[in-house]
Amino acid sequence: MQEDFDAGFASVSQWARMYRSCGLQVVPAKSPAEVKRGEGFKRPAIPWREHEKQLINDELFEQWYGAGGEFINRQNMGVITGSCSGNLLVIDLDTHKHPEANVWWEGIHADHHGGVFLETATQTTGGGGKQYFFRAPAGVRLPTTKTPIGVDFRGEGGFAMLPPSKHDSGGYYHWDDGFEPCDVGIETAPDWLLEEVRALADKYGTGGEGSTGAKEKTPTPERATDAFGNIVDGREDYMHRMVFAAVVNAYRDCPILPDPGEQQRLMRECFKLFELRVKSRIHEPGTPNHILLEREGRGLTLFAQKWREAIAQWDEKIARAASDPPQKKAEAPLSGNPGENPSPFDAGFSGNAITVADPEADVYQLLSIRDIMNMPDPVYLVDDLIMERALGFLFAAPGLGKTFVAKSLALSIATGRPDWWGRKISRKGPVLYISCEGVNDMKFRIEAWSTRNKTPVTEGDISFSLLKDSVNFMDAECVMKLLRTMRGGYGDEPPALVVVDTVSRTLPGADENLQKDMTLYIKTCQAIQEAFDCAVMGVHHTARAGASMRGSTVFDGAADFLISIEIDEETGERFLVARKIKSARDGWREAFVLTEVAVGIGKTSLVAERTVDRAQPAGEGFGGQQETGGQIVDGKKWPAKDVCKAILRDLQKAWDEGRPWSNNKQTREDGRYAPWLIKDRFAVDVDVGESMIRRWLSNDVIVTAVRDSSTKLKGLKVLNGL
Predict the structure, then answer these.
(1) Fewer beta carbons within 10 angstroms: which end of the chain, N or C?
(2) Helix or strand run (H / E) with residue 571
(3) For residues 418 and 382, is the Cβ–Cβ distance under 8 A?
(4) Residue 414's closest CA among 496, 297, 357?
(5) Which sign, positive or negative, has the C-alpha torsion 598, 603, 604, 605?
(6) Which residues fall within 8 angstroms of residue 124, CB to CB, at 6 or more apart?
(7) CATH fold label, 380-610
(8) Cα 182 from chain centroid?
């Protein structure tokens, strides 16, 4: 920027020279007063296609902006993007009208740049949007593209307005403080940004003004409306009728053709009503309905076309229809069958246009006490724990067995068992288990569960199915692929439960603590629920500090149930804890163990099961006998909790005194074998003592470590102290 340049006092000529010094192809632009309303003023005031390839010479620039130049009194100016301006790329975010534009911009920076925005020349448009200026690397040519989410790209052959131009709203374009081209420069776009630009441009097409890309075809559903009464079939016919009715209403209000601005206002209001009643068939959580409709060719572009067709018949068909007395001030019929709703543009149309609904008549339903009492009872998947179509989370610190608990629940539902851990399974059905970790030993875990529960699993049966590929719940294309996979895989019997193990593996690059990201994650889960009328359970981790679930409180608020796993550090007992159950009593704790089961020759796997003796009625054993009779673990009756604590204290004392107990049977000769010591001191059978040591080791209550580095003496010590 020139040393004497001051934005507050600069002349048009000085602004133009400043831009030229930055290598930008600055050209004069039209003012709002020079164009007809609705045409758009953001265009050069000269023939400009001849100047797209290279920077104009000094002679021509002086003719425009030199002393006595042709355009020195024209305030509005702009830049031709692309090769003539040093491969300039302008990213235009219409954030004041499209919040999803800002979501896209923040999202790509979170994914690729640690959430920190790139620093480059940035201006605020006269309409309130943002424009970021970059240079593409040499040889890279980027298209000029408009998208329906408010993100536009000005690449080769594009045009953008520049300060000090005036907007038709009365506002002015201005550079953001500290982000003028001279202060921060025009940065070269990194590769990841170019890839994101191309991806969005490819998704929506690369046309010019108004282009939204190719239509996305969607299958015709079996029914005309979804579960919420939104129209999903016969939408174009409904659009015909709504547009025609609205234009007839306008004629009845005043037979004089509205000016273009008023027509635009009426059309927008009518489209809002249309969008409320019509739903896209594309499942893409987080994307607004009007954008999805546009991609199907059922959005604003088609709506505007039909509006223009109706307006063109103002003095003919519209006038005739308006002359007939209106039958009813209500909506068009919604039979859902296009054949039953003939288009009002057909030659045989009677002229009795049915008008657009009065917004005041579109109200919510109020339920009386009788209505409430007649509502169906809640239906459980697992009684008093998981309702049908519920969303919830099972969470715990690493190593506590949450995956084994989740698999026990999933396999019980999938194989049609009557209950899970004493709770009745009210709805049986297929289960989809999404997991990209622990896949190789899945067969051993299933076999161990089947053996322990005496429940056969049938090879080739899809009642329990594993999805081992990575699925990104934050990416719309991945989610749509998942939904297609489920539709094709389950046929007429949709899954009753979808388990996501773990949550963190399905949100790569997202911030678990960011409300915006986790809201999108929850929407994906809800899309699965809605599509298949199933429950969804995420398996998640605890936070670093405390026992709460990791991540945003969005998880807690959206969940219908929250189940955690806790461990008694002294005894190694594990508990399933009901933190939140919306529809039933919560706050309970239930003990369980991980039982080792042999599977094949020389292999074992663990199975999660309640701490209740299988030969005893419920309530005996650990439930009320733990202080006097002990608990049943691995089919063996342990001593009472106070005895267990005393054993651990003696074990730690032996470590401190330099003669640690051991679980190695070779140490029986020197008197350090732990099960024998437990038997001698506490009158506990050796096989029970072996079970206790084995369980405490697997639960990280105790650990084998080197006590004396000089003699290599090893033994047992309590891991976290008592």
Answers:
(1) C
(2) none
(3) no
(4) 496
(5) negative
(6) 130, 131, 173, 174, 175, 176
(7) Rossmann fold (3.40.50)
(8) 39
**Which pLDDT band holds residue 330 (cuts at 50, 70, 90)?**
very low
Residue 572 CA to residue 575 CA, distance in Å, equals 10
Distance CA 645, CA 679 (A): 15
| pLDDT classification of 341: cutoffs 50, 70, 90 | very low
Question: What are the domain boundaries of the chain?
Answer: 12-204, 235-361, 380-610, 636-718
DSSP labels, 8-42: TT--HHHHHHHHHHTT-EEEEB--GGGS-TTT-S-
Query: Is there a contact between 155 and 81 (Cβ–Cβ < 8 Å)?
Result: yes
Tally the C-alpha atoms within 13 A of residue 481's C-alpha that lie toward its C-beta.
11
449: DSSP letter: H
DSSP 176: P
Q: Name every residue whose Cβ is closer than 8 Å to that of residue 213 and which is 6 or more positions away in sequence.
A: 147, 203, 204, 205, 206, 207, 295
Tell me, yes or no, if the pTM score tops 0.70: no
Residues 722 and 718: their CA atoms lie apart, in Å, by: 8
Burial of 203 per CB tally in 10 Å (0-12, 13-18, 19+): middle
Tell the residue number behind the tokens 């989410």, with chain if given.
Answer: 149
What's the pLDDT tens digit per position in 173-231?
Answer: 999 888 888 778 899 999 999 999 988 888 775 443 333 344 555 555 544 554 444 56
What distances in angstroms separate CA 418 from CA 163, 254, 413, 422, 562, one per listed residue? Answer: 72, 69, 8, 9, 23
Structure tokens at 637: 């009756």
Least confident of 223-227, 577-581, 717-721: 223-227
pLDDT, tens digit, for every residue of 51-100?
A: 888 899 999 999 999 988 999 999 999 999 999 999 999 999 987 777 77
Contact (CB, 8 A) for 100 and 288 = yes
Across the range 140-157, mean pLDDT stands at: 87
Give the SS3 label for residue 222: coil
Q: Please give the Cα distance from 623 to 611 (Å, whole number).
A: 8
In the numeric block, the tokens 């594990």 are attached to 574
Q: Which of 322-336, 550-564, 691-705 has the lowest mean pLDDT?
A: 322-336
What gap in Å lies between CA 76 and CA 28, rounded to an integer?
6
- Give the whole-angstrom CA distance, residue 708 versus residue 687: 29
d(CA 238, CA 13): 55
pLDDT band of residue 41 (cuts 50, 70, 90) is low
Please count the residues of the chain. 722
Contact 180, 5 (CB under 8 A): no
Q: How far is CA 683 from CA 677, 708, 716, in A?
A: 9, 30, 20
- CA 586 to CA 592: how far, in whole Å? 17
- Say what the alpha-carbon torsion angle 337, 339, 341, 342 is, to the nearest 10 degrees: 160
Query: Which residue(s) pair with 580 in the sheet?
Result: 562
How many other C-beta atoms can be found within 10 angstroms of the C-beta atom of residue 490?
18
Long-range contacts of 574-580 (CB under 8 A, 24+ apart): 574/400, 574/401, 574/699, 576/405, 576/421, 578/385, 580/556
Distance in angstroms (rounded) separating the CA atoms of residues 452 and 447? 9
Tell me the Cα Rg of the chain.
35
Residue 12: count of CB within 10 angstroms of its CB: 19
What is the residue-averaged pLDDT of the chain?
81
